């Protein structure tokens, strides 16, 4: 096993710093020696806090409590004649044990709640120290300890300081090794994404507990040194503001970096010394400096400098493809997944009900269904994220129903996420290597990145088709690569069951084909691959079995051929037959004046564009439908128009004014109103208040007659006017959302999936109203998955596929267009062949 | 009996004051999931401005106190713009430390401008006490719960009845949809910090006549109020007010029956115990997690 | 190049070493000022009292330096803020002694801070003069070579005095104690208990409160229920005011004898008119605006307009006298050597201070310059501290 050069360099720097500090002791006066000793003590504490805050991402404002416990334990131990050799480990142990106790409630909390628990803990320790006079000496504290010695050898003050400095150096060396071990990896994983860490088998409770215990133990150790160095301790040494300074030191130095704690500790200890002449102005200066550092150097001193240092790439070769395949293949022929009558309800709403299917080892099983069908919820139950209300899940012969996520992962269920959940601060290969251990921490100082592990990780990455640098930070990866790395990470668990949630979303056609082939290959190794996917071409091409569901209910389970011709499946996707919505009445034709134009619009989230050069025009009084499969980019297009997503390039013109890139509230002012997908009501406001909010940007208050007119149009809302919008049915909410949009007197009304999740009768009523609006001259841009429905009322239509416009024209003409059905259900023969 | 009444009077008065400050935490947390950890300094600022404007500038209370509150509101806006927003935009949690530092900065800036001596802000409501069942009550002590509950009610009215109030509620309930209504969410967040600081300032003005005015008078109130906000669950205003009264009463009863030595130990140990059982507070609701 | 390298390296090393050495060992020329260190609370609630100590020392230094200094060298003050925190005070004392090389230390506003510093100064053989903190064990610290001297009140003696006052002058038979919850309160708890025991009296209870408590009614109610007919009050100015306000609220008019806490600030402003009922002990007060020291103070600090603006006159006077005694001792010792100064302290006589003229103020058995005879009972009248009419 070879240690990388940069790690050796770090070790050398730490050793050199330690030696320098010891040498400096010989050259300085007693007070400077004392200050150096304080720096060492702070460093020890901050290394521990760095494990908790930097590595695990948990904010503790209670470190001073552990520091105090260590100091008192060591002081009392010394006074009881225990000797420094025993008192110091005692200090660390007692503090560590209390840390474990505090962790039990604390690990269940996050953010301000965790901060409060740790603050409360610090207060309790401080006041116990004040009140428990028999033990702690009360406010007067303890003083006059026997001079410390190690194993009978007297240290003296200078010796104690040297010992503290050496210990601090050892802590830094230990941290360097710890952070790259399985423990450190688990903590970093938990920090970047707790959900994904659990799905790699890491026990969130155990990991956080370990971090708390280590931080507490280190603080205790620091306290154990502090007491004999100060020769005096009192409760006033351990006030809350000290905790803030500890945290400040870690942030200032660079949280999560190896050298950060020593740099932060040095500044935090030396700075007040430099400012001692300014006595009373010190805190003023300190507050200002803290803010300045936070604003200007958020990564801390070490982090900021490290960003400028050249990184020597590791040129380790990936394992050969055959080796990767052999490694991946389950030894005993693989375990299948069986789901029986699975169901779950959220607040009375059945999100999934009676889902049953078998995903055999060696097969690809797809779960399909329109938006809101409950597909991801199903995956969440299988992977242990939700506890199912009813039914049973078995993996091989193991019943995994209701298992915690990390337990299910250890049984052999791996998964990916709709929105990728990589560990952003880890590199691509570190993400993969984090999965090898299936949640086992391993030895605390044994690096995860052995050369074998590195080769295998790179082998897995290149197996998934990842062609980028294995040492790129996951947060810097483009969209496609994120998906590939996430799949490689899931595979690195050597799972029996691989669950994939929309792995092809946002991928280019060629990438999708490659992905399809990859999944087929993985299944052929003997894994059970379960795929939630909207790309029908891909689904139909590689699946052995397809489970179709709609609105939480199973509608079919069969082979691709059976599913493709299943009437219920087609109905679920395209809508049922010819709708009754009235076509445009004669006598009013849309004008020729252009209201909204998008030209060459490109946009996306993060690194990769979802939209590519989209051109679209809406004329005044026209109703235009934008069609396409899920994931084609329809919602992204609307969100870009409304300013929620900043366009990468291209222009958007509304009534001769450019509106691209301006704030959403200004776009609303300009007259483009979006009724978003899923209605997005304000649940605790009444229907009336919701509708009135629609007029928020209007100059004048809406007249009562306007509300009256809306109620005439949406008679269902009249009885519900005073009830909270959250209590409305889905259809009523949709009506309300449209009414709310109309209240703004829009120049263009954009509707995103208005029929989503509505009962057929309600859909019909809704479309009748949309037709009325169209006939009254409201300019409408309509996005709906129900293509036939949308085209029945629209004047013109555009078809979006993978972020590009692939067809456009009059509604009647589009209905006949073969490209449309393909865009929804896939089915071109050449792609299936390519995948097999 | 006298002890019981004395504890009740102390507990309700202080509890209401904690609740009022905690309400400030709750408002900003609801709107944007962040809080101003310098809230204690805002309490102090309210009292100091009240003192400076009435005693030093000689303004009548009716003018001075609203001005003091406006001053606090402006400070809230400044804190949000300089110490919260830059970090929120980066997706960093450093606003926590930044607002703590802001509090230190403000306390010390006041120390050098206002002076290092505690001063007294008088109120006609602490000149004579009413004797009730063997213990004395200053009218001011009764005023605090009245103002606190009044403020909670007024906020509710503001939220329900005014255009901007409803816009703020809209941001709380669904920030994305609020933006689509044309609501400037940045302005609303800024406003929530102003409101939060004004509530703290009002608490400072109310407590000052019973206490004294000095630059570090707010620190402990800020921490206690934060405990109250957490205890109340951060999501409901009435939950937070109720938690305030609860906290004040427990504190007063522990002090009365066990002695002040145990107040912090018992109160904070209880707080941890409550959170261990209900991690999102007494009246908080945990949101459904999604992936 | 290779030939020159060792030379440059050596030069750099030499430069670095010399810088380090010069930082560690400041050169000491004969007419360099003699440094006097001050450790006191310069920020926070006690800042006002810290300021009065600084003013007292400054006045004394102006006088001494105006008369040619000590040993022909001027005296210079180096101040450090301890934020009323013993740990910080101890570190600051170390820094002043080990880095600034002060000849002596003055300071310790708060008893806990002084108590933390005491073992250190005794170990470092550094004379330490207390102008304020009254905790008994500060000077009675049991050290073989005691370097701690005080020109201030002593809790044990103060407690005896206020017990005597409350019992003899006010006819109290069952006093209660209301004490701040810190070591100062603890020290007086012992002293007062001892004073009552000596009289064979019982007390109505010992109640503690925190310096940030808004409401002390619960504690006071307990004392009242136990039949207290007089109160001992020990706390700094702001917390003392909270006690008076709480008494007012309860409508309980009871004799109060207090340690000198109320003198630290604008007590009657904070406590209201009832503050005048609190009788407390002082070592020194200005009663005459024509007092020479007061006029000098006005000269140096223009913000002082009336007698009410120097409320902790005690602090100024104690610090002023401390500095004079220290300067006299250094002059007598003929060096800035700690043990020599300590020895000289015992031989002082005829030092004219503002409180009194000191003749043999210190002996190895009694390192306190002030005793019961130097205390006066006072109260506030219209914002000024006035001696009580006997």
Please name the defining characteristics of this protein.
heterotrimer; A: alpha/beta; Rossmann fold; 4 domains; 6-stranded mixed sheet; 35 helices; 16% strand; C: 390 residues; alpha/beta; 7-stranded mixed sheet; 14 strands; 43% helix; globular
Question: How would you describe this protein?
Answer:
Chain A has about 850 residues and is α/β, with parallel strands linked by helices. Helix content of chain A is about 50%, strand content about 15%. In chain A, the strands form 6 sheets. In chain A, strands 10-11-12-7-13-14 form a 6-stranded mixed β-sheet, with helices on both faces. The two termini of chain A are about 40 Å apart. By secondary structure, chain B is mostly helical. Chain C is of the alpha/beta class and about 400 residues long. The N terminus of chain C is likely disordered. Chains in contact: A-B, A-C, B-C. At the A-B interface, helix 4, helix 5, helix 11, helix 13 and helix 26 of A face helix 3, helix 4, helix 6, helix 7 and helix 9 of B.
Write the layout of secondary structure elements.
The complex is a heterotrimer of chains A (836), B (291) and C (390).
Chain A: H1 5-27, H2 30-55, H3 63-79, H4 84-106, H5 111-131, H6 133-136, E1 142-143, E2 149-150, E3 153-154, H7 156-179, H8 182-192, H9 194-199, H10 204-230, E4 232-233, H11 240-253, H12 260-274, H13 282-296, H14 300-306, H15 321-328, E5 337-346, E6 349-359, E7 364-368, H16 375-382, E8 390-395, E9 398-399, H17 405-411, E10 413-415, H18 428-436, H19 451-463, H20 479-491, E11 497-501, H21 509-524, E12 528-532, H22 536-542, E13 545-550, E14 553-558, H23 560-565, H24 567-574, E15 594-605, E16 608-619, E17 623-627, H25 634-641, E18 647-654, E19 657-658, H26 664-670, E20 672-675, H27 687-693, H28 704-713, H29 716-719, H30 730-742, E21 748-752, H31 760-775, E22 780-783, H32 787-793, E23 796-801, E24 804-810, H33 811-816, H34 818-825, H35 829-835
Parallel strand pairs in A: 7-12, 7-13, 10-11, 11-12, 17-22, 17-23, 20-21, 21-22
Antiparallel strand pairs in A: 1-4, 2-3, 5-6, 5-8, 8-9, 13-14, 15-16, 15-18, 18-19, 23-24
Helix pairs in contact in A: 1-7, 2-7, 2-8, 2-10, 2-11, 2-12, 3-4, 3-5, 3-10, 4-10, 8-10, 11-12, 11-14, 18-19, 18-20, 19-20, 21-22, 22-35, 27-30
Chain B: H1 2-32, H2 39-56, H3 61-90, H4 95-114, E1 130-132, E2 135-137, H5 139-161, H6 163-173, H7 175-180, H8 185-207, H9 219-232, H10 237-258, H11 263-277
Antiparallel strand pairs in B: 1-2
Chain C: H1 5-24, E1 34-40, H2 47-66, E2 75-81, H3 86-98, E3 104-107, H4 111-124, E4 128-130, H5 136-139, E5 148-150, H6 155-169, E6 175-180, H7 183-198, E7 206-209, H8 217-225, E8 230-234, H9 237-250, E9 256-258, H10 267-271, E10 278-282, H11 292-300, H12 313-333, H13 338-346, E11 351-352, E12 357-358, E13 376-381, E14 384-387
Parallel strand pairs in C: 1-2, 1-3, 3-4, 4-5, 6-7, 6-8, 8-9, 9-10
Antiparallel strand pairs in C: 10-13, 11-12, 13-14
